[in-house]
Design goal:
This protein has 98 residues and is mainly α. It has three helices and no strands. The protein is 72% helix and 0% strand. Helix 1 runs parallel beside helix 3 (55-83) and helix 2 (35-49) packs antiparallel against helix 3 (55-83).
Length: 98
């Protein structure tokens, strides 16, 4: 029996799930302006996945890269959720002026 597919599915599910709190914390501490970090990291992971020969490593690196890129959209959505009052705003960041 082959468990590779099940392992990749479970690991992918966990990787995607980990990014929900990461996005919340990133928006809280750095605002949505930290999106270039997610872009660079996601692009790096996707390019790296092209060179990994192991199917599990390849798949997980691709899932990680796509999760990082998807987090850019989620950062913008999280910013809107904070504005609506669904999540706390970081009081140390201050408000935008001008």
């Amino acid at each position: 029996m082959q468990f590779t597919g099940i392992f990749i599915a479970v690991a992918g599910f966990l990787l995607i799930g980990i990014f929900h709190p990461i996005v919340i914390k990133a928006e809280y501490y750095f605002s949505s302006r930290c999106w270039p970090v997610f872009l660079l990291a996601g692009s790096f992971c996707l390019v790296l996945s092209l060179f990994i020969q192991n199917i599990i490593g390849n798949a997980l690196m691709g899932i990680l890269g796509c999760s990082l890129l998807w987090s850019i959209r989620e950062l913008k959505q999280q910013e809107k959720r904070v504005e609506r009052g669904w999540f706390p705003k970081n009081p140390k960041r201050g408000t935008k002026k001008g």
